[in-house]
Structure to design on (618 residues):
């Protein structure tokens, strides 16, 4: 009966995906790219910067037709000496992919608009390849994709992957050209919207690849322990095939656990259900990931999966059945020393390496899904992850199109990472202002996420209200009703009061659930020293965290962790103090040059005390 319920939910997911294919025109996501046969299109791409969008609109601002010779997706070489071409791609103008454009050329630092990318390539299809897909790790914000002059589709949303099937007839052995129109203009109906506190890095920010799939490919799979610890090693999930070959069987092997299970391919979705023998659960102390091989007659996928349970019981979070305290930190996807988007395994190593030095067992990847190299590295380092969609501040909660966009980004985030052991928490947004419309919007996202992945905790970073008694800070956002973890941002002693305010503050949540401080922080310019009352000094920030830590130690039952804001300074156009900020949010525990500020060590000390004597918690 339970399996039947699961199937119903699954059909819901498929219905959802098909609906989105119709609207957004890209294909269902291919997962586990590292295990696929791929051809990289990373490297130098030619570009045209096009603030007036001449590549797509004529002088009456009418859209150019598909084969208009002035459209920037068509061949850009003049046909004869009289041919008037008012655009062209050239090696004089190149950008690196992956990478944001803002950090690559000084004149692009503030650019928000349309930029066209072009890559020429030859391609020889391998013998076993049946279908070819073009895969993007992420493009911020809107991508219109054209191959050899034909439009493959569009994608909206700057931080999630997408792929398009490439028709056989379109791809040639020699002389292909791929053109991407990238538009990162902010808009009121965007997710995120006009207003954020981070840099709007534009461009093809993550890798681009051709992916070869066999017929009957294994498109995606969900192989996870059921969420409750009492289930003791029960794996329940599914494998999604592109097509079914009659009589074919699906095999799942976990060699180290001597698992070798066969499932009949009765349809494109194969339900899988089996028990693990005694196994070593994944945990931050022991991040064991098992090699899992999924195969059928046509395809073979290798994956590393860690098995663990995460759940709540009353006011506690339980990892593998035992209470856990999340020693976290928030991270933006940015390398401060270079003021650019992070995108590579080396970048992930720098950021998660810093988090580890701080003593973290958890990171909050703010405020959007980060590159897959982050979550894969978190799996192997044993760092628990909170992953979030950019439903941030004042997006248009009344719009059905905005909700559809947010749901699609949620779907892509979860689909890409639903086999990562490190991911413990999906977040559907940050500091969204309470109203009935907003709560309905957010609940819709929570409900969808629960269907897509019933095994992880659901949350959103909420705000706190000062109680009528002026001392108690109350978390009573109605959205809390639907969340597993009550998370809130507090900046007591920065946005209001001094750090001394922490001494008398009391915290309460109206929900009998674990609670988590998803942000707290103060700005300090690295290297600026003064007495602790001087704002922007490292000493002020140090004092702020000292007071915060004393306050954490007297938090009521249910306090389950904290992720201070933020690991490192990051660019933000909202931060315009000409002496201390200069376009940077300075709440980093690490400064723009990669130097650790004094506050880093306050937090490190707190975390090391928790590791040694968990009773410090209260
Ligand atoms: C917040 C936001 C975060 C900001 C931060 C700040 O509450 O969630 O995105 O950057 O405060 O520095 O004010």
């Amino acid at each position: 009966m339970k399996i039947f319920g699961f199937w119903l939910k699954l059909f819901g997911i498929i219905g959802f995906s098909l609906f989105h294919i119709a609207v957004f025109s890209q294909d269902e996501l291919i997962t586990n790219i590292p295990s696929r046969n791929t051809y990289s299109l990373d490297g130098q791409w030619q570009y045209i910067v096009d603030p007036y969008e001449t590549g797509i609109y004529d002088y009456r601002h009418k859209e150019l037709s598909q084969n208009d010779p002035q459209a920037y997706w068509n061949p850009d070489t003049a046909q004869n000496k009289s041919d008037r071409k008012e655009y062209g791609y050239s090696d004089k103008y190149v950008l690196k992919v992956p990478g944001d454009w803002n950090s690559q050329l000084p004149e692009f630092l503030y650019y928000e608009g349309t930029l066209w990318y072009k890559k020429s390539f030859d391609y020889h299809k391998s013998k076993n390849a049946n279908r070819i897909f073009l895969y993007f790790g992420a493009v911020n914000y809107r991508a219109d994709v054209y191959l050899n002059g034909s439009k493959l589709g569009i994608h909206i949303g700057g931080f999630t992957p997408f792929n398009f099937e490439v028709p056989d007839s379109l791809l040639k052995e020699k002389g292909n050209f791929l053109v991407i129109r990238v538009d990162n203009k902010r808009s009121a109906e965007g997710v995120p919207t006009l207003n954020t506190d981070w840099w709007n890095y534009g461009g093809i920010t993550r890798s681009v690849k051709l992916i070869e799939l066999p017929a009957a490919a294994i498109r995606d799979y969900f192989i996870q322990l059921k969420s409750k610890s009492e289930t003791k090693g029960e794996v329940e999930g599914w494998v999604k095939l592109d097509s079914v070959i009659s009589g074919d069987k699906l095999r799942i092997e976990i060699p180290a656990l001597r698992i070798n299970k066969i499932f009949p391919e009765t349809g494109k979705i194969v339900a899988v259900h089996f028990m693990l023998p005694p196994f070593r659960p994944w945990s931050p102390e022991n991040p064991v990931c098992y090699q899992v091989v999924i195969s059928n007659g046509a395809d073979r996928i290798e994956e590393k999966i860690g098995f663990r349970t995460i759940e709540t019981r009353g006011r506690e979070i339980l990892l593998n059945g035992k209470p856990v305290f999340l020693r976290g930190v928030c991270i933006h996807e940015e390398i401060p020393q270079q003021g650019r988007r992070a995108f590579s395994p080396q970048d992930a190593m720098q950021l998660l390496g810093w988090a580890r030095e701080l003593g973290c067992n958890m990171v909050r990847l703010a405020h959007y899904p980060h590159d897959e190299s982050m979550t894969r590295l978190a799996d192997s380092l044993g760092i628990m992850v909170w992953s979030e969609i950019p439903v941030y501040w004042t997006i248009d909660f009344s719009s059905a199109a905005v909700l559809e966009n947010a749901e699609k980004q949620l779907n892509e985030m979860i689909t890409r990472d639903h086999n990562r052991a490190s991911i413990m928490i999906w977040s559907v947004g940050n500091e969204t202002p309470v109203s009935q419309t907003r709560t309905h919007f957010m609940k819709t996202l929570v409900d969808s996420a629960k269907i897509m992945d019933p095994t992880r905790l659901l949350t959103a970073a909420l705000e706190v209200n000062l109680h009528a008694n002026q001392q108690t800070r109350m978390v009573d956002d109605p959205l809390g009703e639907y969340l597993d973890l009550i998370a809130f941002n507090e900046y007591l002693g920065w946005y209001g009061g001094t750090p001394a305010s922490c001494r008398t503050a009391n915290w309460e949540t109206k929900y009998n659930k674990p609670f988590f401080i998803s942000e707290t922080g103060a700005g300090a310019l690295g290297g600026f020293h003064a007495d602790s009352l001087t704002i922007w000094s490292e000493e002020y920030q140090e004092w702020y965290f000292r007071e915060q830590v004393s306050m954490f130690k007297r938090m009521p039952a249910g306090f389950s962790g904290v992720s201070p804001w933020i690991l490192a300074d990051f660019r933000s156009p909202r931060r315009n103090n000409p002496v201390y900020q200069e376009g940077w949010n300075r709440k980093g525990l690490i400064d723009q040059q990669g130097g650790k500020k004094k506050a880093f060590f306050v937090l490190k000390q707190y975390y090391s005390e928790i590791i040694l004597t968990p009773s410090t918690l209260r």
